């Protein structure tokens, strides 16, 4: 059985982090690239939101007694296999997991134009859609 308080807490974390991203994100890529504080707040909160979604996915799978994949991106694919989320959303969230890994492990210098594009695009909506889908499943 899925842990409802945990689900609610993780969803609140995601929503709060996304609200913070939107609150501090400069309108232009140039302003974003020039504003170290905004860059740090946005990257940290994107990381937090994605990580909370990953945690939620892993807990959901474990609580249901299903296999929990070892790779972050595969968590979303497993949820899609069990018809918890759509395959299309799963693929988009797998890309978000890649961004999380890039930030966490500092695989390279972050491309601020790309980060700005992500933070001001539908990719944030994917995280919100994931939360909405999960929330609807526990009520």
Descriptive report:
Helix content is 78%, strand content 0%. The chain has helices at 4-24, 29-34, 36-63, 72-81, 87-105, 112-119, 122-138. Helix 3 crosses helix 5 (87-105). The longest helix is centred in the middle third of the chain and has 28 residues, at 36-63. The mean pLDDT is 92. The chain is elongated, with a radius of gyration of 15 Å. With 139 residues, the chain is an all-alpha fold. The two termini are 13 Å apart.
Topology order in helix (H) and strand (E) letters:
HHHHHHH
Question: What is the straight-line distance between the termini?
Answer: 13 Å
Q: Which architecture would the CATH scheme give at its second level?
A: Up-down Bundle
What fraction, in percent, of the residue positions are helical?
A: over 70%
Q: Indicate how many domains the architecture comprises.
A: 1
Strand content: under 5%
According to DSSP, the number of beta strands is 0
Q: What does the overall shape look like?
A: elongated
Tally of alpha and pi helices: 7
> Biggest β-sheet: count, sense, barrel?
none
Q: Structural class from helices and strands?
A: mainly alpha
CATH fold title = Four Helix Bundle (Hemerythrin (Met), subunit A)
CATH superfamily: bsu32300-like
């Amino acid at each position: 059985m899925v842990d409802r308080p945990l689900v609610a807490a993780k969803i609140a974390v995601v929503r709060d982090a996304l609200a913070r991203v939107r609150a501090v994100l400069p309108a232009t890529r140039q302003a974003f690239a020039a504003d170290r504080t905004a860059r740090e707040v946005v990257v940290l909160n994107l990381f937090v939101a994605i990580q909370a979604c990953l945690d939620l996915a892993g807990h959901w799978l474990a609580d249901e007694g299903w296999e929990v994949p070892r790779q972050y991106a595969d968590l979303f694919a497993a949820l899609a296999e069990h018809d918890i989320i759509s395959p299309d959303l799963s693929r988009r969230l797998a890309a978000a997991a890649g961004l999380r890994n890039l930030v966490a492990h500092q695989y390279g210098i972050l491309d601020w134009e790309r980060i700005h594009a992500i933070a001001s695009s539908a990719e944030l909506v994917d995280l919100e859609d994931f939360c909405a889908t999960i929330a609807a499943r526990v009520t």
